[in-house]
Amino acid sequence: MSFFDKMFASVGIGAAKVDTILTNDRLIAGDDVSGKVVILGGKIEQEIDEIYLKVITSYERERDDKKIREECVIGKYRLTDRFTIRANEKREVPFSFELPIDTPVSYGKTRVWVETGLDIKNAIDPSDRDYIDVHPSTLMSQFLNAVTDLGFRLREVDCEAAPHRLRRRLPFVQEFEFIATKGEFRGRLDELEVVFLETSHDRMDILLQVDRRPTGLGSLFSEMLNLDETNLRLTVTSAEIPLIKEKLLQILRKHS
Description:
Layout: H1 3-10, E1 17-22, E2 26-28, E3 32-40, E4 46-63, E5 66-78, E6 83-85, E7 90-98, E8 112-120, E9 127-135, H2 138-149, E10 152-161, E11 172-180, E12 189-198, E13 203-212, H3 217-224, E14 229-237, H4 244-255
Parallel strand pairs: 2-9
Antiparallel strand pairs: 1-3, 3-7, 4-5, 4-6, 4-8, 8-9, 10-11, 11-12, 12-13, 13-14
Helix pairs in contact: 2-4
């Protein structure tokens, strides 16, 4: 092992490389994420402390009256103990883990990825990023379909920082913002915001914010004071799928 090869490897030149190959990149939260991590040895032998995988997304929060984006680790998985990768050696490490049930879906501005890293002592750690396409569960899809069937159009989806009382394990919630473009709620509601707090494929807690459209001076003052907004919480289950649209309709009629 030459001195120069060791020195260059410490700054990433001629060092080990990592590449993750996913079996499937189209997933639903709760599915198994599987594949293999391929490690290619560099010009010198190196000691790998561990291989890890992280599921990551980003969310928006305010700091000093400015909106910034921060990354959030949804899950981290350790694949190996310490081992040595020889020069030019190729090693494959299979893996499988469950995508956390609270992983946001890949709608709007939301991006989710799997990041692979090698921890190498006294060297720059190589990494790899693979984006995954997270689809809504059947229960979430049915609720979203009910919203659009009632005349709403999806305007924006993003992950935003939220206080503890409105979230669970993660520091953010994923907000779905709808506007009424047809049907009985056009002209009656400014917007409808939906947040899913999924607990399983068969049960889901949902937060709704119903924003009524001002129709007079009193309503205008209410809007200025945010009194035109109604915050609701409901739970739906797979057994209620045929009733979701009617259940949502009655809620919106009552609060519009």
